[in-house]
Amino acid sequence: MRAKRVLIVCLGNICRSPTAHAVLEHKARLHNVNIEIDSAGTSASHKGERPDNRSVKAASARGYQFNGLYSRPVADHDFDDFDLILAMDNDNLTELKRRCPPEHAHKLRLFLSFHPDYPALSEVPDPYYSGSKGFELVLDLIEHACDKLLVAPVLTDS
Ligand code: 4NP
């Protein structure tokens, strides 16, 4: 079975989606789950930038690395290339739905649709203008959702 390909999407691709990318990669390795992961932004305004220092600091304190991650905007071919495209919030999901060819619409979901408290919790809040607590919340939400995602049939079924 070829590895499932997962694309994680937020607005700038410098805070939430690179964090989810790093956490999912770490946990997939730990649990021997063979998946390919990438992340992207609905906006190109931070294209080429490294993840936000506040995200790097919060994540590295929990043991996650951001190796080789640079912001890139979502590309049209991503809808073809990936099996699962996970949006951090409803604005990201709306933008993905607007761009996605109808035959790939089934690939689009909220990242927190895998969180144990979904749908009460459905969005990973944008931490860009928040203090350090916002970045810790991003990590808490992402860690829980990753644990569920890694055992979800959408990834484990052939
Ligand atoms: P992200 O956070 O979408 O989680 O990467 C943001 C990064 C940059 C901006 C907003 C959110 N910005 O307005 O520049």
Overview of the structural elements:
This protein is α/β, with parallel strands linked by helices and 158 residues long. The protein has one domain (4-156): Rossmann fold. 37% of the residues lie in helices and 13% in strands. It contains six helices and four strands. The chain has a four-stranded parallel β-sheet. Helix 1 crosses helix 5 (132-149) and helix 2 (53-60) crosses helix 5 (132-149). It is globular, with a radius of gyration of 14 Å. It starts with a strand and ends with a helix.
Write the layout of secondary structure elements.
Blueprint: E1 4-10, H1 16-30, E2 35-41, H2 53-60, H3 78-81, E3 84-87, H4 90-99, E4 108-110, H5 132-149, H6 153-156
Helix pairs in contact: 1-5, 2-5
The structure holds 4-nitrophenyl phosphate.
Question: Descriptors for this entry?
Answer:
alpha/beta, Rossmann fold, 6 helices, 37% helix, binds 4-nitrophenyl phosphate
Describe what is shown at a glance.
This protein is an alpha/beta fold and 158 residues long.
CATH architecture: 3-Layer(aba) Sandwich
Secondary-structure element sequence? EHEHHEHEHH
Count of strand segments? 4
The profile of the biggest β sheet is:
4 strands, parallel
Low-confidence stretches: none
Number of helices: 6
The termini sit apart by: 6 Å
What name goes with the CATH superfamily? Response regulator
CATH domain class name: Alpha Beta
